[in-house]
Amino acid sequence: MAKRALMVGINTYSNRSFDLKGCLNDIDSLKRLLVSGPYNFNVDDIESLTDTSATKQSILSRLDYMLGTASPGDTLIFAFSGHGTQAASQDQSESDKKDECLVPYEGTFTSLIRDNDLHGMYNKYIDSRIKFTAIYDMCHSGTMIRELDVINDNIVEVVSNRCLDVFDLKGRPARDKEIGPYNILSACKDNETAADLRAVGPSKQSRGAFSYSLHNFLSLTPDLPVAIADGQILDGIKEVSDHKQNPHYVVYDINSPLIRY
Predict the structure, then answer these.
(1) Mind giving me the DSSP string for 135-195?
(2) Interatomic CA distance for residues 222 and 232, integer angstroms
(3) Residues taking part in catalysis
């Protein structure tokens, strides 16, 4: 039974005005946790796409490969730390007429990775025999809240939501096809943004507030059920940031650990 992970972290975008600080530290921290913690991953089975290598084509092709070659009993993790945004949706079932999107390195409209791309891939490959978890630390802000919105084929800074809600985090009835036997961990609700902290913890590293709290929690209590973990991770965020964000989880079983393994 294999254990594999794909991690994407983008500090440097093609448009340098979108640059972030803590994303590479986020994925480095998660990698250490998976290798040295109870999850028992082999470092050679963790693939990282960072900055210029984190293009739309690379992210989707490597994710498709990881999911498509999985076997029953495998443990899989997909983690993204970078910008998120919303774009107009052609899906009439979207009540707000918007798709939530990952922003890859290119940072253009045509490069956005939409939630439909992701849940379509997840539901194509994942069944209850495969333990899959996706972790999104999206919508980072530094000393000021920097929002990303879509105009034509460019992404410009505006004040609007920049948070990815991969599935149904808007309070509307979830579509059955979006709920599968996997866990989705998101940094904040869709009407919030997520903090990118410049100096946090003993090492004073730049980190995403959600990733920092989540990884600290998992290093100490990896098997605590989601129903209990939620409040403790939020408390951890509040200890290091005054920024308002409430992590949101779409999980297969609230009595399961945050990361399925």
Answers:
(1) EEE-SEESSS---EEEETTEEEE-SS------SS-SSSPPPGGG--SEEEEESS-TTS-EE
(2) 12
(3) 83, 139
Query: Within a domain: residue 257?
Result: no
Answer for the pair 226, 257: CB distance below 8 angstroms, yes or no.
Answer: yes
Mean local confidence (pLDDT), 155-162:
31
Per-residue pLDDT band at 254 (split at 50, 70, 90) = confident
pLDDT of the residue at 96: 57
CATH number at residue 43: 3.40.50.1460
Pairing of strands 182-186, 248-250: antiparallel
d(CA 33, CA 242): 26
d(CA 223, CA 28): 21
Stretch among 118-127, 154-163, 247-256 having the lowest mean pLDDT: 154-163
C-alpha radius of gyration, the chain, whole number: 17
- Residue 13 sits at the vertex; the CA angle it makes with 11 and 14, to the nearest 5 degrees, is 160
pLDDT in tens, 18-40: 888 899 999 999 999 999 878 99
The half-sphere exposure of 149 on its side-chain side, counting CA atoms within 13 A, is: 10
What is the CA 242 to chain-centroid distance, rounded? 21
Q: Where are the alpha helices (DSSP H) in 184-225?
A: 209-220
| 256, part of any domain | no
How many CB atoms within 10 Å of residue 246?
A: 15
Instruction: Cite the DSSP H helix spans in the chain.
Output: 23-36, 56-68, 115-125, 209-220, 226-240
Give the count of domains, the chain: 1
